[in-house]
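Lab notebook page, bench 4
Experiment: in silico fold of construct C2
Operator: M.H.
Input chain length: 176 residues
Purpose: comparison with the prior construct
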Amino acid sequence: MRFVVAGDLAPVIAATTQWLVRAYPGVGGSFSATLVKVQARQAVTVAAWLRYPTALDAAFLDMMGPGGAARLDGVVGGDEPESGEDTWRSWVDEVVVSWAACLLADPALAATAVEALADTDHAGDLERDFRRLTEPDRRDLEAAVLLRHPDLLAPIADLHRAELLACLNSDSADAA
């Protein structure tokens, strides 16, 4: 029997981050591209940990698969994937992308989501420094003008925003 640990979300986090960075690229040079990737990865990590809060959830994801990027590509009007890209694209999780988009568009919501991570199995696994997501500085915002633009993110964020809000509200209700 294979035991699933929090690190098993790594392929979903990597592929989902890649999709976001390609759909909403950085403005500027390589430094901006790096800042965009860091912000996207932080948002995707928080979203994935909330979506799959336990090792059992991660195991179900491992068995069922995340679903892929096809619907998302249609929503943003993306190009057909080049040959050889299908493998990583199959690891993109639509709900995680949507939740990450919500977090990127609203740093206050992102801070609430980061606080909710305390109720997940991932809380103690890694250092949880999500400042580029929750407290972006001027350079972060300039580099990620497309990645953080609420109007541009809305078609993706709106796909599963209600589920994210319900998840965060149930966490805060449990804490009360």
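Observations: Residues 1-7, 172-176 have pLDDT under 50 and may be disordered. Residues 6-175 form one domain.
Next step: discuss at group meeting.
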